């Protein structure tokens, strides 16, 4: 039986090797999904379109005017806001998000930020709880971003209903 | 005795009292010779549909508007190397196109323009930006007023 103190001493002196698990961000592979042998991987319409179809068959997940010529004053602010919104939705509705919470569409009309997308509910759909959570999320994000935020998230019974293709 | 007292009480009538100041002139509405609306976006179809909406609104409200001008798009290009190392000949080409459309509204007053622009700006779709340029008609300053017939 190993002496626990001795075990820790050994670990400290060994050179650590670890596996990096960052998502793949290579420009040649981003947005593309690899096929499985038994076709179990579910793809939504968004995921199924390759990146070169953006603007043709596929639309953006954020809509703002800061990429237009002459309107680039607050690009970084808008990017930061988007990230904040996505992380908040992902953390606040952990069982309800679909596909890792990547398919939330954020639109901006004037000063108002609309967060749209699909959420799934399992058989237990507590409507009052959902309404409360929506109200809290809207209030919290409005105060945080100092802009009116409206949630237009739609509920779907199961993630499988969003499937376009299985590869 | 009672009458004297009642005469001292200030009376209020049911009439709106207009504050009459003898020296100040009433504020005149601004006059605009032309209001140019420039719309920019990444999607040509969205801009086209917004411009049809603008023209419909102007027609319904009897406001004269010039036809839409289509300007050439502005391109922002970012070339990147396709490979991690060497192979300078092979690149990736990323570009962003900003499509521009212009329209003008002629001969309107300040109040008309503010109402019209508020209505149009509320209906701007997401991802589309609008720029408004005003050409106002003002009176000459007093020092340069033409003096009668000279």
Automatic annotation (TrEMBL), chain A:
Pfam families: MRP-S24
GO BP annotations listed: translation
Alphabetically ordered keywords of this record: Mitochondrion, Ribonucleoprotein, Ribosomal protein, Transit peptide
Subcellular location per the Swiss-Prot or TrEMBL entry: Mitochondrion
Source domain of life: Eukaryota
One GO location term (cellular component): ribonucleoprotein complex
Family, per entry: Belongs to the universal ribosomal protein uS3 family.
Name of the protein: 28S ribosomal protein S24, mitochondrial
Organism expressing this protein natively: Panagrellus redivivus (Microworm)
Automatic annotation (TrEMBL), chain B:
Pfam families xref list: Ribosomal_S10 (PF00338)
Keyword list, A-Z: Mitochondrion, Ribonucleoprotein, Ribosomal protein
Predominant location: mitochondrion
Domain of life: Eukaryota
Keyword Zinc-finger: no
GO CC terms in record: mitochondrial small ribosomal subunit
SUPFAM superfamilies per record: Ribosomal protein S10
Domain Small ribosomal subunit protein uS10: 36-133
UniProt key word Nucleus: no
Compartments reported by the entry: Mitochondrion
Family statement drawn from the similarity comment of this UniProt entry: Belongs to the universal ribosomal protein uS10 family.
Name used for this protein in its record: Small ribosomal subunit protein uS10m
Lineage, broadest ranks: Eukaryota, Metazoa, Ecdysozoa, Nematoda, Chromadorea
């Amino acid at each position: 039986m190993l002496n626990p103190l001795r075990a820790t001493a050994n670990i400290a002196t060994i050179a650590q090797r670890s596996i990096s698990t960052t998502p793949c961000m290579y420009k040649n592979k981003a947005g593309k999904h690899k096929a499985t042998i038994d076709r179990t991987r579910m793809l939504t319409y968004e995921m199924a379109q390759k990146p070169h179809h953006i603007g043709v068959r596929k639309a953006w997940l954020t809509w703002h005017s800061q990429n237009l010529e002459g309107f680039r004053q607050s690009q970084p602010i808008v990017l930061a806001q988007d990230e904040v919104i996505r992380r908040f939705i992902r953390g606040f509705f952990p069982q309800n998000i679909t596909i890792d919470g990547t398919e939330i569409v954020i639109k901006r009309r004037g000063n108002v930020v609309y967060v749209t997308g699909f959420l799934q509910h399992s058989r237990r759909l507590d409507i009052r709880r959902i309404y409360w959570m929506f109200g809290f999320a809207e209030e919290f994000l409005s105060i945080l971003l100092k802009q009116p935020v409206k949630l237009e998230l739609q509920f779907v019974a199961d993630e499988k209903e969003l499937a376009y293709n299985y590869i | 005795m009672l009458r004297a007292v009642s005469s001292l009480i200030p009376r209020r009538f049911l009439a709106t009292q207009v504050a009459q100041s003898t020296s100040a002139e009433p504020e005149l509405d601004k006059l605009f010779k032309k209001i140019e609306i420039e719309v920019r976006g990444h999607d040509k179809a969205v801009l086209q549909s917004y411009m049809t909406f603008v023209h419909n609104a102007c027609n319904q409200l009897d406001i004269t508007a010039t036809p839409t001008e289509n300007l050439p798009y502005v391109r922002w290009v970012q070339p990147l190397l396709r490979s991690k190392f060497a192979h300078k000949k092979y690149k990736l080409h990323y570009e962003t196109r900003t499509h521009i459309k212009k329209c003008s509204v002629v001969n309107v007053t300040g109040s008309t323009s503010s109402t019209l622009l508020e209505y149009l700006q509320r209906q701007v779709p997401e991802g589309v930006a609008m720029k408004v340029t005003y050409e106002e008609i003002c009176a000459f300053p007093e020092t340069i007023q033409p003096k009668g017939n000279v």
